[in-house]
């Protein structure tokens, strides 16, 4: 396979995500109340010139709701990936400090990995009462163990590197070694891990919202759009599910592709 | 005086790599250590510098245990300088990790000012080895364990490195343990020699510096 192909693909995906991000970030400003504006004379209108991606049962523009939903998903994904990778990095660094702390971190990782994470995710989101904050916390607290395990292994490999021994012999403190040797080594891995966590978080947000323990029904989240679409599937209103689903799929695949490109580059 | 008494070292349940190893290294003294590959020379060097703990026996410096915190008075210089430096760092950062060597000393070790702002990966093994040796000469260091530090260098670079180290060691009365396979090099540099063979340390013939 041509070596430039994956790089080109990653570049194309980065461009797509950058455009999407721009649209999502500026969306709140130029979309205004459009995602929630009802038009009772245009209920369940199919895609066309007047309604680009069609409308839903209350006559709301699907393109505006999809864009707003993707914006929300992006927000949740970003916050959950950031929080999840911060937990993973913090615990992996902690594990390098002493064998006791390492045993504790390993126990935490193994315990969380042994529980089906979807169940844990549902329980946490439900216990926290739903909403954006609950979804972010639920996704972050259930998704850090995989990344923490990788980071811990990376840092343990580094712990036996001669330059770490030498740094210690030169009188450098544990804090110095942690900050100047371990952290810069772990950060690129953490960045890739966070990017790989991103699409997971987005999909889980959609799943939680679809199941009713995620974002509020008043918010145009992708999960809510998909749950609404389910009710009209038998009526042949295909656009209600296809466009939000396609948008979610494209966003998830693009971020995943960027993460894989970055992993190869690093 | 750096002293090792009745050292024994074994990897887990393996038979001991060496045992009953005792040696002394005085201030300003150059002592050689030779032995076949795998005899345990580097492991012995690491034990002397406090990098690893012996299975039995102890290492003392002026009758005291090696300090655990702060700059250690015994520094170990490994064979591969590439492994002795953080590959993400610049040369200046590596060199100044423990102290700031004066320009005259940098010059004596052949370290060019233009290297300082370069990433360490752009330096050759010989250039990097000079950086590592000078870094280890921080004030407070009294003994050096030079573990085959010139093995991968060309003869001219070897000579320059040893000359610079010899001059500085003499000035500061540093004790140096030179680990090498090169009997001629040990003969030229060291007052005394040890040979590690069959898990035991033997005193080799004495050599006087020219």
Automatic annotation (TrEMBL), chain A:
<dbReference type="InterPro" id="IPR050366">
    <property type="entry name" value="BP-dependent_transpt_permease"/>
</dbReference>
<keyword id="KW-0472">Membrane</keyword>
<feature type="transmembrane region" description="Helical">
    <location>
        <begin position="177"/>
        <end position="198"/>
    </location>
</feature>
<keyword id="KW-0812">Transmembrane</keyword>
<dbReference type="InterPro" id="IPR000515">
    <property type="entry name" value="MetI-like"/>
</dbReference>
<dbReference type="Pfam" id="PF00528">
    <property type="entry name" value="BPD_transp_1"/>
</dbReference>
<keyword id="KW-0813">Transport</keyword>
<keyword id="KW-1133">Transmembrane helix</keyword>
<protein>
    <submittedName>
        <fullName>Peptide/nickel transport system permease protein</fullName>
    </submittedName>
</protein>
<feature type="domain" description="ABC transmembrane type-1">
    <location>
        <begin position="70"/>
        <end position="259"/>
    </location>
</feature>
<dbReference type="GO" id="GO:0005886">
    <property type="term" value="C:plasma membrane"/>
</dbReference>
<comment type="similarity">
    <text>Belongs to the binding-protein-dependent transport system permease family.</text>
</comment>
<feature type="transmembrane region" description="Helical">
    <location>
        <begin position="72"/>
        <end position="97"/>
    </location>
</feature>
<feature type="transmembrane region" description="Helical">
    <location>
        <begin position="210"/>
        <end position="230"/>
    </location>
</feature>
<feature type="transmembrane region" description="Helical">
    <location>
        <begin position="236"/>
        <end position="255"/>
    </location>
</feature>
<feature type="transmembrane region" description="Helical">
    <location>
        <begin position="118"/>
        <end position="140"/>
    </location>
</feature>
<keyword id="KW-1003">Cell membrane</keyword>
<dbReference type="InterPro" id="IPR035906">
    <property type="entry name" value="MetI-like_sf"/>
</dbReference>
<dbReference type="GO" id="GO:0055085">
    <property type="term" value="P:transmembrane transport"/>
</dbReference>
From TrEMBL, chain B:
<dbReference type="GO" id="GO:0016887">
    <property type="term" value="F:ATP hydrolysis activity"/>
</dbReference>
<dbReference type="InterPro" id="IPR050319">
    <property type="entry name" value="ABC_transp_ATP-bind"/>
</dbReference>
<keyword id="KW-0067">ATP-binding</keyword>
<dbReference type="GO" id="GO:0005524">
    <property type="term" value="F:ATP binding"/>
</dbReference>
<keyword id="KW-0813">Transport</keyword>
<keyword id="KW-0547">Nucleotide-binding</keyword>
<feature type="domain" description="ABC transporter">
    <location>
        <begin position="2"/>
        <end position="209"/>
    </location>
</feature>
<dbReference type="InterPro" id="IPR003439">
    <property type="entry name" value="ABC_transporter-like_ATP-bd"/>
</dbReference>
<dbReference type="InterPro" id="IPR017871">
    <property type="entry name" value="ABC_transporter-like_CS"/>
</dbReference>
<dbReference type="Pfam" id="PF00005">
    <property type="entry name" value="ABC_tran"/>
</dbReference>
<dbReference type="InterPro" id="IPR003593">
    <property type="entry name" value="AAA+_ATPase"/>
</dbReference>
<dbReference type="GO" id="GO:0055085">
    <property type="term" value="P:transmembrane transport"/>
</dbReference>
<dbReference type="InterPro" id="IPR027417">
    <property type="entry name" value="P-loop_NTPase"/>
</dbReference>
<protein>
    <submittedName>
        <fullName>Peptide/nickel transport system ATP-binding protein</fullName>
    </submittedName>
</protein>
């Amino acid at each position: 396979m041509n070596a430039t192909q994956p790089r080109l693909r990653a570049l194309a995906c980065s461009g797509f995500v950058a455009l999407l991000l721009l649209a999502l970030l500026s969306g709140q400003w130029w979309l205004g109340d459009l995602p929630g504006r009802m038009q009772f004379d245009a209920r369940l209108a199919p895609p066309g010139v007047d309604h680009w991606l069609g409308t839903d049962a209350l006559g709301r523009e699907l393109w505006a709701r999809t864009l707003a939903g993707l914006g929300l998903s992006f927000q949740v994904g970003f916050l959950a990936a950031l929080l999840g990778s911060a937990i993973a990095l913090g615990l992996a660094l902690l594990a390098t400090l002493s064998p006791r702390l390492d045993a504790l971190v390993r126990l935490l990782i193994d315990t969380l990995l042994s529980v089906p994470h979807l169940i844990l995710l549902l329980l946490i989101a439900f216990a926290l009462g739903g909403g954006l904050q609950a979804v972010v916390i639920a996704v972050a607290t259930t998704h850090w163990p995989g990344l923490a395990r990788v980071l811990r292994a990376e840092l343990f490999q580094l712990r036996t590197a001669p330059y770490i021994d030498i740094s210690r012999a030169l009188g450098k403190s544990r804090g110095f070694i942690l900050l100047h040797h371990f952290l810069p080594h772990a950060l690129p891995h953490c960045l890739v891990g966070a990017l790989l966590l991103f699409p997971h978080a987005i999909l889980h947000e959609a799943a939680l919202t679809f199941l009713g323990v995620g974002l509020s029904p008043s918010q145009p989240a992708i999960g809510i759009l998909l749950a609404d679409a389910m009710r009209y599937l038998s009526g042949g209103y295909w656009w209600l599910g296809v466009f939000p689903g396609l948008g979610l799929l494209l966003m998830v695949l693009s971020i995943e592709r960027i993460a894989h490109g970055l992993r190869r580059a690093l | 005086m750096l002293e090792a008494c009745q050292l024994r070292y074994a990897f887990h349940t393996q038979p001991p790599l060496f045992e009953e190893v005792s040696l002394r290294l005085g201030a300003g003294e150059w002592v050689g250590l030779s032995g076949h590959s795998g005899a345990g020379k580097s492991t012995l060097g690491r034990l002397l510098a406090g990098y690893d703990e012996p299975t039995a026996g102890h290492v003392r410096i002026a009758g005291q245990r090696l300090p655990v915190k702060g700059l250690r008075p015994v520094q170990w210089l490994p064979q591969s300088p590439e492994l002795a430096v953080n590959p993400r760092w610049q040369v200046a950062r590596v060199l100044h990790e423990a102290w700031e060597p004066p320009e005259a000393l940098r010059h004596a070790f052949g370290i060019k000012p233009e290297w300082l702002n370069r990433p360490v990966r752009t330096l050759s093994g010989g250039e990097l080895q000079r950086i590592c040796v000078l870094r280890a000469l921080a004030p407070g260091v009294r003994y050096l364990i030079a573990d085959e530090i010139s093995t991968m260098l060309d003869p001219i670079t070897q000579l320059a490195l040893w000359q610079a180290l010899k001059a500085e060691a003499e000035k500061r009365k540093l004790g140096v343990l030179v680990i090498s396979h090169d009997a001629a090099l040990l003969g030229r540099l060291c007052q005394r020699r040890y040979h590690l063979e069959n898990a035991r340390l033997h005193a080799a013939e004495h050599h006087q510096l020219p």
